[in-house]
């Protein structure tokens, strides 16, 4: 298959592109390689992909309608996975405009491209952050999510709504994936595991928000990729049982689906740090701080829909996943 993967220089996008190339798909990567974090890491991820004959790459922004349309026209991708976005809860408090541009304007351009070029299936990244102020655990895709607590979350929820309208109006099959705190090799330097590893190895203090008491459904990158590939292969179809009298947010009369992809095993931040200390063979100096603005106290994914529809449940324990991350980090940075 010919698959357009946006955000291909990113953590999840580059890992997904690898997996698709390995199984013989043709991948068109699209990314603006912005400097939200270390650009050399993005280039290194792309270098690994460039050794595959089936990989092509375009450096441009989602907001650049002409560049994006040229890619749709030139390659005529059958399926699209939209992972390019301005990610991160905390940065959305500092720079909401970046989220409006990439996640709303950019996503509209993706929808238009998919519509006009008759794409068979659009899979797009949403986020566990859409659960916002919800406290009923585990979070289910059938829960309503109308109380986001960060602008980042609001843009991800908006993506789900935007996708649904295109599924309804143009019968474009779309699947939204709510990822839960992803970690692993080639990860993101702005995320906790990466920041902690760097500081612990340098003997510097780490900032532990909410005094380490929040729980996260940390999900290993390979588990995320397995979920993305399986849902990509299963084109969203209308749900014959869907009723407007009691509307299930996770499906529709239109070809639209939502899934959580999370480990379904929440872990307290302090335990996550303990596992990291074991893998590094070094203790952290912890600076205990309150919960950050925009952060939610706990996340916990109900993955029943994923199990029922594509027969998959993420399973990598953090002890194994964090060890893989540390091995990669030590080898990549030679520490
Ligand atoms: N990593 C997580 O824990 C997590 C959790 C929930 C959701 N997500 C979502 O998954 C997707 C991938 O996340 P990631 O962790 O790989 O992030 P990432 O930042 O590593 O990857 C995103 C990539 O998109 C590119 N990009 C950003 N804005 C762009 C634009 N306007 N045009 C073109 N390219 C652009 C960036 O250069 C980057 O390479 C994002 O949509 C993110 O919001 C990630």
Explain what this protein looks like in three dimensions.
By secondary structure, this protein is of the alpha/beta class. It has 11 helices and 13 strands. The mean pLDDT is 97. The site of nicotinamide-adenine-dinucleotide has 27 residues, from α1, α5 and β5.
Write the layout of secondary structure elements.
Blueprint: E1 2-6, H1 11-22, E2 26-31, H2 39-50, E3 55-59, H3 65-75, E4 79-82, H4 91-94, H5 96-116, E5 121-127, H6 151-170, E6 174-179, E7 182-183, H7 192-202, E8 205-208, E9 215-216, E10 219-220, H8 221-233, E11 256-261, E12 267-268, H9 269-280, E13 285-288, H10 304-310, H11 318-333
Parallel strand pairs: 1-2, 1-4, 2-3, 4-5, 5-6, 6-11, 7-10, 8-13
Antiparallel strand pairs: 9-12
Helix pairs in contact: 1-2, 1-8, 3-5, 5-6, 7-9, 9-11
The site of nicotinamide-adenine-dinucleotide has 27 residues, from helix 1, helix 5 and strand 5.
Mean pLDDT: 97
Number of helices: 11
- Written as H for each helix and E for each strand, in order along the chain, the element string is EHEHEHEHHEHEEHEEEHEEHEHH
Global morphology: globular
Bound molecules: nicotinamide-adenine-dinucleotide
Major β-sheet strand ordering: 3-2-1-4-5-6-11
Give a short overview:
By secondary structure, this protein is an alpha/beta fold. The chain has helices spanning 11-22, 39-50, 65-75, 91-94, 96-116, 151-170, 192-202, 221-233, 269-280, 304-310, 318-333, and strands spanning 2-6, 26-31, 55-59, 79-82, 121-127, 174-179, 182-183, 205-208, 215-216, 219-220, 256-261, 267-268, 285-288. Helices cover 41% and strands 16% of the residues.
């Amino acid at each position: 298959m010919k698959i357009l993967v946006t955000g291909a220089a990113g953590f999840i996008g580059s890992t997904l592109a690898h997996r698709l190339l390995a199984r013989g798909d043709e991948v068109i990567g699209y990314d603006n390689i912005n400097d939200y974090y270390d650009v050399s890491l993005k280039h290194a991820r792309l270098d690994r992909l460039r050794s595959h004959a089936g990989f092509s790459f375009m450096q441009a922004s989602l907001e650049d309608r002409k560049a994006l349309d040229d890619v749709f026209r030139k390659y005529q991708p059958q399926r699209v996975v939209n992972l390019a976005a301005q990610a991160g809860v905390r940065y959305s408090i500092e720079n909401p405009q970046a989220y409006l541009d990439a996640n709303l304007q950019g996503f509209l351009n993706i929808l238009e491209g998919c519509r006009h070029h008759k794409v068979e299936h659009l899979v797009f990244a949403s986020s566990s952050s859409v659960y916002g102020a919800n406290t009923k655990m585990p979070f289910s895709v059938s829960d309503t999510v109308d109380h986001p607590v960060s602008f980042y979350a609001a843009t991800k929820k908006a993506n789900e709504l935007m996708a649904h309208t295109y599924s309804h109006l143009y019968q474009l099959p779309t699947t939204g994936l709510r990822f839960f705190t992803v970690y692993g090799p080639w990860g993101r330097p702005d995320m906790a595991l990466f920041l902690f590893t760097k500081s612990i190895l340098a003997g510097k203090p780490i900032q532990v928000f909410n005094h380490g008491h929040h729980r996260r459904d940390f999900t290993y990158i390979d588990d995320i990729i397995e979920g993305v590939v399986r849902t990509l292969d299963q084109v969203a179809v209308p749900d014959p049982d869907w009723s407007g009298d009691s509307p299930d947010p996770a499906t529709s009369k239109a070809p639209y689906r939502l899934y959580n992809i999370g480990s379904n095993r929440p872990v307290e931040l302090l335990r996550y740090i303990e596992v990291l200390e074991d893998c590094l063979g070094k203790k952290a100096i912890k600076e205990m701080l309150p919960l950050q603005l925009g952060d939610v106290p706990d996340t916990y994914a109900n993955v029943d829909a994923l199990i029922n529809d594509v027969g998959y449940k993420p399973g990598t324990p953090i002890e194994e996943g964090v060890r893989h991350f540390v091995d990669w980090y030590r080898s990549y940075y030679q520490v």
